[in-house]
Give the backbone structure.
Amino acid sequence: MYNREYLVSLLKKDLALKKRSKMALIGIDLSMIQLLAANYGFMYSQNLIKKAAEALSRHCTDNRLLFQPRENRFVFYLFDYKDKNELVDFCDVIIETLGSLFVTDRISVGIGIVEVDQNQNEEDVESLMTRILIASERYVSLFGKDFEICFYDEELEALVNREREIMEALGTIAADDYAGNDLFLQYQPIINLKTGSIFGFEALARLKTEKLGPVPPLEFIPIAEKTKLIHPVGEKVIIKAFRFLNKLNEHGYDEIKVTINISVIQLLQPDFTSRMYELMNDMQINPENVCIEITESVFTSDFDSINSILEELREAGLQIAIDDFGTGYSSLARENELKVDYMKIDKYFVDKLLVANLNKAITSDIISISHKLGQRTIAEGVEHHIQLQYLKEHGCDKIQGYLISRPLDEEDAIGFLQKHKQL
């Protein structure tokens, strides 16, 4: 099959001669196929790539050439086509072709489209190759199972530039000698509904730089995971949370717990548990005051390994909470096997209490199921008294949300504890 070198040379020649009326690249990212090798072996994934190549080759024409620039990637070079609609229609053909091929494997496939500007010259070919790589990678997900199409346009370019700036900021923070405050934590109180006392705080990572301003966690955490900067940055989050625990101890709050969000990438790092124990020992942290929070979706990658790690952490005294319960990856059979202490009821189900017939709301069923599985419940996003009342009546163990408090800086969190004690 034609390789990357030939594609680059062909693009340079066509751009130099200006002989094409319209030119475009359609990139196909099959990198998720490599995940199948772990379960089915290397040859299985290789044969699947070969079948994909054969199936895609059938769509080649005089103005539609197929290339394989990398092992798990393909690129169609189209020229003298009519308009964008023709490109999208052809992508639909690709989706239909690969969809039938991967129907039993359920992997995520990214499809990117780059239209070549007629004013570009042969020196711009490498930037075109970078753009098609970015566009085809855009919607490839470890947990997604769909085919997504992405045009490389000004909006995506601005997004890519912003991601690069966020990555640079995270890289600076990750350095061993970094002492700035761009990365900081806020703490949202968690209330015990049965006693009315404060159970603890969820530590929430925040990023704010002079250049970018505030950057939402939903934006910078995925970038940290994708670039593996989540390892050094995540450790700094853990250290900051432990310092807050020590500060709580200094003020006499030695039973308050702090919940720390941990990425699956951190969790599967070979030395994660040993490093966790080392930090707790060095900083004199009581393991019983630490709660690790992970999203339910992590179990789609390596259930047994992750469950084993969680069991080890629990045996060391830490508590485990599963976030986003019931929002897409639930299996009651698997939930029954989980070595966890808490199920966090997603805000989606709490919000439903404002609009649904309360007699038909399933939030109470989630609470009941969790209790029968031997786990306690924490409801997130509680903002209204009607939600609070419902959760109390149906035996929810703990809650957090704006009705109780917004996330607080360290000093404000300690002030919140002092005020709550007085009340």
Remarks:
- Residues 347 and 381 are 5 Å apart (CA to CA).
